[in-house]
């Protein structure tokens, strides 16, 4: 019996780990919000730089950091004051908030939008690879966490050789890859 319970816990944990994390809205994204049978309550709305958006009758909503479903529920809850059982739909029309920056000794430094998970090696490919004199083993990923900046080291030769692959982190919006 103990083995069966342990196996069930393991399978459930593996199944949850395999589920992709839902996309979280960011400033610059555009969402389509509509309420069924309410033609006046349909709009494409920009997530502002402060992370908020405005929608009739629902007022100001924080969108940045929320999933589409979390935003849908928040708007639904506000609309219930005015519309019995509203059917709210929220869809992402434009993913404009996911951007990384690559600077230093790469062939095409700059700002790069992305719409799917992107790791460090893939970001270097987007930038056209490193220049001949780049310090590939001294690359740093600069990231803001809880209001402070951190630097994550990255050694290209290790990852390219199949070693220490945990360095090849998935980048987050706003990350800066520095190639000295």
What is the gist of this entry?
This protein has 180 residues and is an alpha+beta fold. It has helices at residues 2-18, 68-79, 120-126, 156-160, and strands at residues 30-35, 42-46, 52-55, 59-62, 88-94, 99-104, 110-113, 139-145, 148-154, 176-179. The protein contains four helices and ten strands; from the N terminus they run αββββαβββαββαβ.
Provide the CATH architecture of the largest domain. Roll
How many DSSP E strands?
10
Task: Name the poorly predicted regions.
Answer: 2-11, 13-18
Structural class: alpha+beta
Q: What percent of residues adopt helix (DSSP H or I)? A: 10-25%
Task: Kindly describe this structure.
- It is a single chain.
- With 180 residues, the chain is an alpha+beta fold.
- The chain has two domains: 30-94, 2-Layer Sandwich (wza like fold), CATH 3.30.1950; 99-179, Roll (Outer membrane lipoprotein wza fold like).
- It is built from four helices and ten strands, in the order αββββαβββαββαβ.
- The strands form three sheets. Strands 7-6-10-8-9 form a five-stranded mixed beta sheet, with helices on one face. It has a three-stranded antiparallel beta sheet with strand order 2-1-5, covered by helices on one side.
- A hairpin with a 2-residue loop joins strand 8 and strand 9 (148-154).
- It is elongated, with a radius of gyration of 21 Å.
- It starts with a helix and ends with a strand.
